[in-house]
Amino acid sequence: MPDKTPLIQVKNLDLYFGAFHALKNVSVDFHSGELVGLVGDNGAGKTTLIRVLCGIHKPTSGEVWFDGRQVKEFHPKLAIDNGIETIQQSVGLCDNLSIARNFYLGREPVRRIMGIPFLDMGKMRDLSTKVIREFGLRDNVSADDEVERLSGGERQSVKIGRAVEFKNRVVIMDEPTNHLSVREREHVNELALQLKEQGLLVIYITHDIFQVHKLANRIVIMENGEKIEDALTSSMTADQLEEVIRQGGRKVEKREAV
Ligand SMILES: Nc1ncnc2c1ncn2[C@@H]1O[C@H](COP(=O)(O)OP(=O)(O)OP(=O)(O)O)[C@@H](O)[C@H]1O
């Protein structure tokens, strides 16, 4: 069960891009140990909301609270320091670097020999090997291999493994299964559930309400910059949620999900 105090609280958030009103009075709570599906049509404001949480966009007005403290400065570095990691399909890994190097990207361990700093390749290799095995990469893949030889699902596994190993508290998965095979999609979704079981907050952005309904404990639907639904998956079926999206938030009769 999620904690009572939200890890992230978004309160009455508005964001304008010039004259364009991209987020309209959005309030939403996210708890540790939850897997929340964030869905909505193209241009609904999902990515914009997430970018506020990642410190990329500063809201025009409203508040964001993280772990009981109000966020005063919006900067990607601060979000990373708070343990917020975003996993996107197309970014986050450097193809021409090894899995081990990618694993430690931006956090490379250093050892000093006679005062001169060297990358601690042994440490990078050992830990990333352990994690890639735990996260289901093929046995013939080694930590020294370049990332470009990995499949889409394996790439996602490296990013998810990295998020867990570096003790992130929030993992935002932005369309994490696009272009993946059925088996890879299942694997990535299993990893998302594992993160939730380990007590992380997982925010899962997708257009696929049917897929995320099976995974998430809660679904937040956005439309034209507004939050139009925030429902436990146990309280609404995927068909009903799809109807909410189709009707743009007009009232849909709720019934128990089966
Ligand atoms: N930097 C920006 N400058 C101006 N407008 C922007 C900017 N970023 C997003 N928008 C606009 O804000 C609206 C919401 O975009 P956003 O990317 O948040 O939607 P989304 O729900 O993530 O959609 P998709 O599923 O297509 O990615 C869109 O109309 C988009 O064109």
From TrEMBL:
Alphabetically ordered keywords of this record: ATP-binding, Nucleotide-binding
Residue intervals of the ABC transporter domain: 8-249
CDD domains for the chain: ABC_Carb_Monos_I
Membrane-spanning residues: none
Keyword match ATP-binding: yes
GO molecular function: ATP binding; ATP hydrolysis activity
Residue stretches in coiled coil: none
Alphabetized Pfam families for the sequence: ABC_tran
InterPro entries documented for this protein: AAA+_ATPase, ABC_carbohydrate_import_ATPase, ABC_transporter-like_ATP-bd, P-loop_NTPase
KW ATP-binding (keyword) present: yes
Protein name, as recorded: ATP-binding cassette domain-containing protein
